[in-house]
Each structure stands twice: as C-alpha cells, then as structure tokens.
Amino acid sequence: MHKAADKTGALAGAAYGNERVIKKSKNLWKVGHVAVIAALCAGIVPAQAQDSVDSAEDSFNIPQNVTMLGKSNPNVRRATAIVNGTVITGTDVDQRVALIVAANEQKISPEEEQRLRLQVLRNLIDETLEIQEAKAQDMAVTSDEVDQTYNRLATQRFNRTDAEMTTYLKSIGSSPASLKRQIEGELAWDRLQSRNVEPFINVSSEEVDDLYNRLQASRGSEEYRLGEIYLSATPANKQEVFNNARQIVEQLQKGGSFVGYARQYSEASTAAVGGDLGWIHLEQLQNPELEAVAKNLTPGQLVGPIEIPGGFSILYLIDKRQVGMADPRDAVMSLKQISITLPKSSTQAQAKAKVDAFAKEVKAIRGCGEADAAAAKMGADIVTNDQIRIRSLPEALQQALLQLNVGEATPPFGSVEEGVRVLMLCGRDDPQVDSGPTRDQLMSQMESERVNRRAQRYLRDLRRDAVIEYN
C-alpha cells in the first residue's frame, strides 16, 4: 500500500532500493523508511490487506510453456520474452536471479528457483515497460545518470571501487549491466511518477482535519504493525497458488527474509516496502478472518496462508502498541550483564547445580554498586551498557525487565554452550508520551497513499497495451 508497482529484486531492496529517493509531492521519501513515516499515521488511512480487483488485473498471465533457461553461455543471447521489440534473454534472468540469491544469503530449492525465475521475468518486463515509457515521454534516463547512481551504490553501500564491484557481481553470477538496467528502470519510473502522477494528486485540508480528529479520538486503542504477502488466485489456479504460498511460509520458517519474499512475490502494493502495512487498527484489514488471526499473534509470529476473497494472505506481526500512549518498551535502560561459563562436559545435573548457585549469589547482590565486586568474587564476567532500549531485546527478556525494580536482576538464561547470564537493572529512563503526527505529516501520508494507487494503475495500463512475445 505504501509504494505501488516497485519491482526491484531483493538485492536492490537491500542495496539500491533503500538508497533510491522517491519524490512525494512536497516531501522526499526514502523507500526504506516509508514504513517509519507510516507509523506516525497509525489508524488514519483505511488499509486493506489487498485490493483483489487491482491485484488480479495487475498480474501478468505468464503462459505455462515459458522456457526457463538453465545455466547458459553469456555470449549466447536467447530470448525468453520480447517486450514491444525489446529482448529479455535467459542471461538477463540468470543474472537478476543471482543478485537476489546473493542478497538472501541462503540456498534455495530447485522448485523455489523456478518460481523465482518466473517472478524475475515479470520484474524485467515491468522494468522494460517503464524504461520504454520514459523514452516515449522524452524523459529517458541517461547513461551518465545510471553510472553516477551505480558508482554511489558501489562506494557507499558496498564500500567497493568500480573494479571491485564488477568483480563481486561477476563472482555471484551477475554483472554490472544487470544492476545498471535495474537502476535505469527505477530512475525512469520515479521520473514518470514525478511528472505524470504526483501533480494530479490532491488532499484537502478538510480531509486532513477529519483524519487528525479521528486519530485523537482513537488514543489508547490497540494497533498492530503487520507485514503481508498477498497472492491473488482464481478458481482455476487456486490450488497451485495455495501450494506456492505454503512453500513461501516454509521458507520463511526456515529463516528466509520476510521483506525479501514480500518484495519479490507479494501482489499487494506494500511489496515495495517489504510487505509492511505500517501501524493499523485490525478493522482496517476489512476481513473478519484476518482480524481474528492477527489479534492472536505475538510479535515475531507468522501465520498463513489464509484464504481470503481473491487469493491468499500470509501475515507477520512485526509489533503492536496502544495509540498515542507511551510504550514501556521504548524505555532506555542502564544494565549490567553478569555471566559465567559452564564446562562443556557438564552433565545436566552439574549444570543445574551451578546455575542454581549462580542465581543465589546474584540474588544476594545489593544493587548495581556491589555488582562488580560480587562478579569478581564469583569469577563471573560483567559488562555495562547505559543505552539499551527494551524493545531491542528478545521478547522474553523484555517482559522480565519490565517487571524489575532498580537493583534487581532477571532470572538466569543461556545454555551450556553459550554460558549463563543475568541482566541487572541499574537505571531506567521512561519514554515520553507521543503527541502523534502533525497535520503536515498526515497530509504527506495521504498524498503518498494516493500516488501509490495512481502509479499502480499507470503500470497496469502499460502492461495492458504492451505487445509481449514469449519464447
């Protein structure tokens, strides 16, 4: 919902997409930080997990007989698609897939690679249409502009020279040309939106006032920050889409990046921001089943695929909070970590005895003033940190720390392999109550949402008018 029709791959999301600056009326929005701004506008813009009509029309009907080329000679140019006369080759697909696989830093199964190749082909077709449209509108991106962005990316993001960047890309099976083509597509699409979309977006002060008043009235109610992956389905391909969604869930459960998968596979307009819906009330999902499921999630939990009208949804709860109220997890704490190591050969009984003795000695410490001397006496290591935000810690530790008074410690945690430790609370700065977004921030958010919807329709029209031949 935050950015429509951005078809970058996972590497671009990690490396280039977050550098890319998108003009949004009076403001500059960095794609990687749109969700942060959206959080300021929680409960304001009605959000949907998907737009079933737009999603269905926004999807390419890629034939089942598309020839997906395997490892090929880079010098042999074979077309997998021809878009308005522009050839997309198997080499183009291979090199873009290599970028995504390298960014995800994990091996993928042959079945996953096949699905990824189909998605990459779709991305390349969109890219081609965007570049062609910019040229047709006399807004073509020059090679100098592409090179400048590429060089900035190499030096600032990857800390590499041009030659080192070339070596790196070739080592992962990609090339500078592949990344530069992606950069050209992004710059072209930004340019098209700036001239053909944004000037025609208008938000009235009355609309802003109405939303501002609604936000003030909603203070104290719960809101959720959700990630979504939406896959559209028809009666004919329903089972196939469900199987694909289930495989995506399995990959995510094995440690795959939700942001990366959302960028690559989700058909909702939130794909460009890694599926991040921002802070919303559950009613904004406009689906009772999704509301019921999301309400029972804990931060970090994943659920799906869930069948909804028009397709399937995968939800991930990033966080939840109360509107307009100070979140205790934003408190900044001063902590001392006291830790001991356990002999690797310890039996379960021996380890338990040592942990029990450690817990007893920690409990006897009378505040942080005695912690260093007590740690030295018991042969434990101690580390102090005065700037730990509670929410940066694992969920279980967050709950334990929220219950502590100054001078108290958490129960021991850890393992035989990693050692056992406790955290002692030495001080706490509670967060101030958030006054909420200003009217200007709300105006910017609403403008951004409308630009996204209009941009999605723009790209959909380009797809409809295109002449595409598949190999």
From TrEMBL:
Keywords: Isomerase, Rotamase, Signal. One of its GO terms (molecular function) is peptidyl-prolyl cis-trans isomerase activity. It holds the Pfam family SurA_N_3. The keyword Signal applies. Residues 221-319 form the PpiC domain. The keyword Membrane does not apply. PROSITE patterns: PPIC_PPIASE_2 (PS50198). InterPro entries: OMP_Chaperone_SurA, PPIase_dom_sf, PPIase_PpiC, Trigger_fact/SurA_dom_sf. PANTHER family: CHAPERONE SURA. This is Parvulin-like PPIase. The lineage of its organism: Bacteria, Pseudomonadati, Pseudomonadota, Alphaproteobacteria, Sphingomonadales.
